[in-house]
Amino acid sequence: RDFLPRGSGIVTRRPLILQLIFSKTEYAEFLHCKSKKFTDFDEVRQEIEAETDRVTGTNKGISPVPINLRVYSPHVLNLTLIDLPGITKVPVGDQPQDIEYQIKEMILQFISRESSLILAVTPANMDLANSDALKMAKEVDPQGLRTIGVITKLDLMDEGTDARDVLENKLLPLRRGYIGVVNRSQKDIDGKKDIRAALAAERKFFLSHPAYRHMADRMGTPHLQKVLNQQLTNHIRETLPALRSKLQSQLLSLEKEVEEYKNFRPDDPTRKTKALLQMVQQFGVDFEKRIEGSGDQVDTLELSGGARINRIFHERFPFELVKMEFDEKDLRREISYAIKNIHGVRTGLFTPDLAFEAIVKKQVVKLKEPCLKCVDLVIQELINTVRQCTCKLGSYPRLREETERIVTTHIREREGKTKDQILLLIDIELSYINTNHEDFIGFANAQQRNTQANKKRAIPNQVIRRGWLTINNISIMKGGSKEYWFVLTAESLSWYKDEEEKEKKYMLPLDNLKIRDVEKGFMSNKHVFAIFNTEQRNVYKDLRQIELACDSQEDVDSWKASFLRAGVYPEKDQTENEDGAQENTFSMDPQLERQVETIRNLVDSYVGIINKSIRDLMPKTIMHLMINNTKDFIHSELLAYLYSSADQSSLMEESADQAQRRDEMLRMYHALKEALSIIGDISTSTVSTPVPPPDDTWWLQAS
User: Fold this and answer.
1) DSSP 82-125
2) For residues 76-115, b (16+ Cβ closer than 10 Å) or e, as one string?
3) Both 35 and 167 in a single domain?
4) Which among 126, 47, 46 is positioned nearest to 87, based on CA atoms?
């Protein structure tokens, strides 16, 4: 068949992938116009030319985008040929300046594949040592295992010269040797010379030429066809085992997913019911695993679900409680006013109980805000956990939406009940001040106890926390901020060069230290807090405060909670007194001062008891009323709510993406099965030719 364009200059300007497929009828089809079958091969040529021009233009431009052509015929072997552009040195027409580089890159892209055989075509009327085709073939196939030399235009050589040495593989040896062919001339093509006649003329040329007569049976296009066929057979047999194992592993990986799709009928109500039950059940299991923790599918990148709620309970909430601790000066003034107001016009001889109760109640009421804030934080985490668990329901958008809505609504309903219960706990504390509590210091002890002695300290050398922190405000001269390994104990804060803790940089005692927040820098993504000395002393070298930076606000809160355990508290907001003059003139007589000190100690002791109680009861209340209740709701009632919210068929409507994915997977699965059955039918006992011995490549090294 004569359908490949030919002419002078660069004719092949796009790679042509030609698939020859054995079939009972003869026709051709292009990938870019699949519906059309070509039976007239002149039309095929015209379509190739038109498609080339469509992408590259009419003025000699090139493109690496291939044209795919399939030819079905009873006269072909199953074979894929790729016709590549010839190497152009000088750009013409619309061709870019780097045309040679572009074409070489395009050719290398195809010939580098281990599964391809390379036909290195060289005209006989040019010096073989200058053959670009051979040079490029050697680059990607140095052993010569898949390169076949083809010599064309043998009939156009100068009289008295021949290519005998080349064809006998003596001049520039190739492992698979050279085959000579004689194609039709441009005059023959223009005169529509029949290909059969051209093959006969080629045969006659080799038989009648004195230089080639002795090897005529190894020359010509029919022999080239035979050699290629043989190479293809060898090649298929060599690659079959690897291909089979690759296909089998792909099939195995698809098997599990395809199992659920095999007998898939999208509108089958029983399948929808089963899928709905499985999805809701899986959602409940995932939710419980995220809250309670689980050994399988552990997230190693960030805290999630239960771990974050635990952090709220035991780091964030205690920190919020301490943050609202009373200001010493204000508290003493309030106690003194309370004592005076209770005595009224009389001068009191004894310390009044009522002053203690009034001050305690005022402090207990302040607990409401951090407790409610703790509930809000837990709710946010629960809702995030629900969202993460509904990701698996992505195949059914409506089901995901409804599940999320129903569970979130339930959590919001429980929020009110949980907050009411927590406020009730605080009201219960307010209703009766139990001065007979076993941990309460009592009146006698309060008179003797000094405030400093009342401050509990942990075991001196106990390490509370270790970790990396950045000191943010070291002077610019010394390189600006720097990261160190910090160790916080009950008595000091030390920092080292690294976690080996060999090279200590500094040790800072914790006495008189407090924490304050520092605003985040405009360009910085770090979160910062500062440590300073309440007695206006430098903390480190010439710094009044050291600014410590973390990567997230969570880390800052966690470090602050650790400092609290070590007795380093946050700074109080300094609010102006309403009446500065009164503050300055206000003085206490020694008896009143003693009474204030006594009540101060009693309040400190009792508020400590209540804080301890609230810290213990808060997680329990939230767990019982909200978290455990939500788990029970998901397991026992979610399904009923889903059924009542919408009909099953609309809930289980697949997303378009899921339907497409299923179709693709089934198509892939069947294609793999078919490929494996075809491979199973192939007889590997076909005749094979051994690989020729390695050739002498001295000529390549020399060039």
Assistant:
1) EE-PPPPSS--TT--TTHHHHHHHHHHHHHT-TT--EEEEEETT
2) beeeeebbbbebbeebeeebeeebbebbbebbeebbeeee
3) yes
4) 126
* Domain range enclosing 472: 463-570
Per-residue confidence band for 334, with pLDDT thresholds at 50, 70 and 90? confident
Average pLDDT in the chain? 80
Whole-model pTM? 0.52
Do 484 and 431 lie in one domain? The reply is no
CB neighbours of 4 closer than 8 A, spacing ≥ 6?
16, 45, 48, 83
Per-residue pLDDT band at 576 (split at 50, 70, 90): very low
Query: Residue 450's pLDDT band (boundaries 50, 70, 90)?
Result: very low
Residue whose structure tokens are 């109680």: 613
540 with 617, same domain: the answer is no
Which pLDDT tens digit goes with each residue over 644-677? 877 777 777 776 777 777 778 888 888 888 888 8
For residues 586 and 340, what is the distance between their CA atoms, to the nearest angstrom? 13
| Helix H or strand E segment including 72 | strand 67-73
Of 240, 329, 268, 258, give the one whose Cα is nearest residue 678: 240
Task: Assess whether pLDDT exceeds 60 at residue 384.
Answer: yes
Q: Would the pLDDT of 406 be above 80?
A: yes
Which ranges of 485-546 does DSSP label H, i.e. alpha helix?
none
Measured CA to CA, the distance from residue 18 to residue 66 in angstroms comes to 10
Domain count, the chain: 3
Residues present in the chain in total: 703
**How do beta strands 482-489 and 492-496 pair?**
antiparallel
Q: Are residues 112 and 215 in the same domain?
A: yes
Tell me which DSSP letter residue 543 carries: B
CATH of the domain at 413: 1.20.120.1240
Pairing of strands 147-152, 178-180: parallel
